[in-house]
Each structure stands twice: as structure tokens, then as C-alpha cells.
Design a protein that fits this description.
The chain is 39% helix and 23% strand. The chain is built from five helices and eight strands, in the order αββββαβαβαββα. Strands 1-8-7-4-5-6-2-3 form an eight-stranded mixed β-sheet.
């Protein structure tokens, strides 16, 4: 019996060591050689890209859109709400990231899940109040995007490749215009 228990312990230890090694490899992809951390420690990079679920929303004029309409660009999809304090705090950094890297190859998609009758107006007022100038206004009037994408709360930010596949995600607020976040996005735009 002791031999079996010892073998089981070694098997468990081997699994733990393998998991730690895999985590180190993923951190290396995020951090780069010699880097202690990129400031996005909660960012989870998937071992394999995942196809994203269909997501419908409206633009600032209330015109219907789909996430697929933006395919061909690398996207940083941020699910947020005007009533969410951490969301409000990180929004300026997302705006600065869009100003710095946004263009034909990359876009920050800040998707509000404010879903009451005044949702779009609330988002527009917030952008004006805080001075958001570079992000387009997108709103999910059904607040179903988070559910469809399997988010655990707001804010949640997904890094999506040009084929519409999720490469990784971060739940919670982050400084998206930090040097390390910019490196992550640039590596995704130009692998």
C-alpha cells in the first residue's frame, strides 16, 4: 500500500511541476525574456486560441453591429459599464492605448453593457465627462455580450486576433497604456 501511495504522490508532484512549467512558458510569452512582470499579472493567455461567440451591439448612432464586422484587426475587447467604478478608472488608459496604436491593424472596442433605456446616452455622457476622445462608442443594449463570452464580471478585457479568436483575457481593471500592455498588443499585431 505504501508503494502505491508513494507512486501517487510522485504522480501528483509530476503534474504540479508540469503545470508550473507550463505557467512559466505562458508568463514568458507575456513578459518576454528577463522581464519580471508586465503589469498584467492577471492576464490569462490561452494555450490555444478560442473561437469567440457571436456578439451583437450598436454603435453611437444605434446602428446594429457584430463583433465579426471588425474581423481583420487585432481587437482589445473591453466589456464595461458606466456604473462600474473600476471600469470608469481604466477607461482613460484604454483611450490612450487606442490613440497610440489604433488604426487599420488594431482597435480597442469598449463595449458598454449599460442596458436600460438611457444606456447609449449614459455612455455618451460618460465619454464627454471623462474626456474620452479616441474610442468609438459601442453599447450592448441586451447586456448579453458578457454572458455569451463567458465573462465573470466587469471589466473584462479580451485580446482577439485578426481571425476573431480569443488569445487571452483579463478580469478586472488594468493600465492598458502601460509599456508592458503596449508590448503585448504590438506582439499580437506583428507576431
Amino acid at each position: 500500500m505504501a508503494v502505491t501511495t508513494r507512486r501517487q504522490r510522485w504522480a501528483v508532484l509530476a503534474v504540479v511541476v508540469a503545470a508550473l512549467a507550463a505557467g512559466a512558458v505562458l508568463r514568458g510569452l507575456l513578459d518576454g525574456p528577463g522581464s519580471a512582470a508586465i503589469g498584467l499579472k492577471r492576464f490569462v493567455l490561452h494555450a490555444q486560441p478560442k473561437q469567440t461567440a457571436p456578439v451583437s451591439f450598436v454603435d453611437s448612432d444605434g446602428a446594429p453591429m457584430q463583433l465579426d464586422h471588425l474581423r481583420g484587426k487585432v481587437l482589445l475587447l473591453n466589456i464595461w459599464a458606466t456604473w462600474c467604478a473600476p471600469c470608469r478608472e481604466e477607461m482613460p488608459s484604454l483611450d490612450r492605448l487606442q490613440a497610440k496604436l489604433g488604426g487599420p491593424d488594431f482597435e480597442v472596442v469598449a463595449l458598454s453593457i449599460d442596458n436600460d433605456a438611457k444606456g447609449l446616452a449614459q455612455v455618451k455622457a460618460f465619454y464627454s465627462q471623462v474626456g474620452i476622445r479616441h474610442l468609438r462608442i459601442f453599447q450592448d443594449p441586451t447586456a448579453s455580450a458578457g454572458f455569451n463570452l463567458g465573462t465573470a464580471g466587469v471589466p473584462t478585457t479580451l485580446l482577439i486576433d485578426r481571425q476573431g479568436r480569443e488569445l487571452g483575457r483579463l478580469t478586472g481593471a488594468a493600465e492598458w497604456d502601460s509599456e508592458d500592455a503596449i508590448k503585448l498588443v504590438r506582439r499580437t499585431i506583428s507576431p
